[in-house]
C-alpha cells in the first residue's frame, strides 16, 4: 500500500510539473480555428449569407488571387534572405543594402496593390447590405483589448499566466 501511494504521488507530481508546458499557447500564428490561407477577411465573408452564385464567384476570385500572389511572395522571401546575407557580411555595402531595401519596398507595394484589387473585386460581388455587414464585422474585430501583442499586452507567450 505504501508503495502504491509513493508511485501515485510521483505520477501526480510529474503531471503537475508538466501541465504548464501543455497549457502554453502556441504563440504567433493563425491560431487553432484558422485554416491555412484564410485571413480574417475571408472569415468575415463566411458570415454574409452568400448565395451559391456569390460563394462560387468569391471562391474563384480567391483562388485566382492566391495563384497571383505566389510569385511576388516568393520573390519577397528571397529578397529578404538576400538582404539578410548582405547585412551578415564582414563589411556590409550600404549601396547594395539600400538597393535591396528598395526592391523589397517595391515588392511590398505590388503585393498591397494586388490585395486592394482583390478586395474591390470581392465588393463587386456583394450586395450593398452585405457590404455594410462586412464593414460592420471588420469594425467589430478591432474592439476590446488585444491579447498577446501591442500596448495592451496581457498574456505573454511562454509565461505561466496573466500579468
Distance between the termini: 43 Å
Q: What characterizes the major β-sheet?
A: none
Question: What is the architecture of the domain at 39-140 at the second tier of CATH?
Answer: Up-down Bundle
SS-derived structural category: mainly alpha
CATH class of the domain at 39-140: Mainly Alpha
Could you tell me the radius of gyration in angstroms? Answer: 24 Å
Fraction of residues in β-strands: under 5%
This entry's quaternary arrangement is single chain
Given the C-alpha coordinates, what overall shape results? flat
Q: Characteristics of this structure?
A:
flat; 163 residues; Four Helix Bundle (Hemerythrin (Met), subunit A); 67% helix
Description:
This protein is an all-alpha fold. The chain has a domain at 39-140: Four Helix Bundle (Hemerythrin (Met), subunit A), CATH 1.20.120. It is 67% helix and 0% strand. It contains five helices and no strands. α3 (52-87) packs antiparallel against α4 (94-125). The longest helix is centred in the middle third of the chain and has 36 residues, at 52-87. Residues 27-38 have low confidence and may be disordered.
Amino acid at each position: 500500500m505504501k508503495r502504491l501511494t509513493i508511485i501515485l504521488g510521483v505520477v501526480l507530481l510529474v503531471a503537475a510539473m508538466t501541465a504548464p508546458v501543455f497549457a502554453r499557447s502556441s504563440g504567433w500564428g493563425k491560431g487553432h480555428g484558422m485554416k491555412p490561407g484564410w485571413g480574417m477577411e475571408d472569415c468575415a465573408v463566411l458570415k454574409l449569407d452568400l448565395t451559391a452564385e456569390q460563394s462560387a464567384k468569391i471562391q474563384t476570385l480567391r483562388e485566382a488571387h492566391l495563384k497571383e500572389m505566389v510569385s511576388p511572395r516568393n520573390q519577397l522571401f528571397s529578397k529578404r534572405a538576400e538582404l539578410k546575407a548582405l547585412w551578415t557580411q564582414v563589411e556590409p555595402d550600404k549601396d547594395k543594402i539600400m538597393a535591396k531595401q528598395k526592391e523589397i519596398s517595391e515588392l511590398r507595394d505590388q503585393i498591397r496593390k494586388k490585395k486592394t484589387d482583390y478586395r474591390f473585386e470581392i465588393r463587386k460581388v456583394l450586395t450593398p447590405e452585405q457590404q455594410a455587414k462586412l464593414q460592420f464585422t471588420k469594425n467589430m474585430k478591432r474592439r476590446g483589448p488585444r491579447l498577446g501583442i501591442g500596448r495592451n499586452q496581457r498574456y505573454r507567450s511562454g509565461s505561466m499566466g496573466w500579468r
